[in-house]
Design goal:
four-stranded mixed β-sheet; binds glutathione; Glutathione S-transferase Yfyf (Class Pi), Chain A, domain 2; 202 residues; Glutaredoxin; alpha+beta; 8 helices
């Protein structure tokens, strides 16, 4: 099995953390999806990382689909509950964390355009989603070690990856200043070996 990843992508980090938590053998092929030399488009028509290629040559993307595929390998720890509705609830939290990332990525990319091409309206609208998402997640983690149930799940991994990425990419904003309980909740997860081995190469 091989995973095509970049070392900065939070979506790829989610998968890289899962691979480590489950101790799954997987070659990580580092690609730069935004560069003309990118190879990921040979496997994924959308040209995005992460993309997973199984030993049989089957291809899976995007990160929620890859996470679901990895669950089918039935390797402990299970990161999704067996009960289907419970699994949907975990996936809902993952979607919220990914949605915060999607909005923050737009803000980041908008900020890289020539100054006269940047839209404050776009940045403000997307940052509004980041703020609302973070507020919702902070509420969700109140008094909890795990976001769902009594053990590590995909929800915890997705949210902690999102917190780590915002912290790295928007260091000036200071997530710990604005959402101290969320940052404190994520801290022990970010200290796990699976996260320490995948710190974004910003
Ligand atoms: N929803 C996708 C998002 C993947 C994504 O946007 N990856 C970015 C890197 S962070 C990418 O490969 N972008 C290349 C492009 O858009 O051409 C997932 O969860 O995997």
């Amino acid at each position: 099995m091989k995973a095509i990843v970049s070392l900065t992508s939070p979506y790829a980090r989610k998968i890289r953390v899962i691979l480590r938590e489950k101790k799954l053998a997987c070659d990580e092929i580092v690609d730069l999806p935004h560069e003309p030399t990118a190879k990921v488009g040979e496997f994924n028509p959308l040209g995005k990382v992460p993309t997973l290629v199984t030993d049989d040559g089957e291809v899976f993307f995007d990160s929620p689909v890859i996470a679901e595929y990895l669950e089918t390998l039935a390797v402990e720890p299970a990161l999704l509950p067996v009960d289907r509705l419970a699994a949907v609830r975990v996936r809902q939290i993952e979607a919220l964390a990914d949605g915060v990332l999607d909005a923050a990525v737009i803000v980041l990319l908008e900020g890289r355009r020539a100054l006269e091409q940047q839209s404050e309206a776009v940045k403000n609208r997307q940052w509004g989603k980041v703020e609302k998402g973070l507020a919702a997640l902070q509420k969700l983690c109140e008094g909890k070690t795990w976001l769902f149930g009594d053990t590590l799940s995909l929800a915890d991994i997705a949210v902690a990856v999102m917190v780590g990425w915002l912290d790295a990419r928007f260091a000036d904003y200071g997530i710990a200043k604005h959402y101290p309980q969320l940052a404190a909740w994520a801290a022990p997860l970010l200290a796990r070996p699976s996260f320490q081995a995948t710190v974004p190469a910003v």
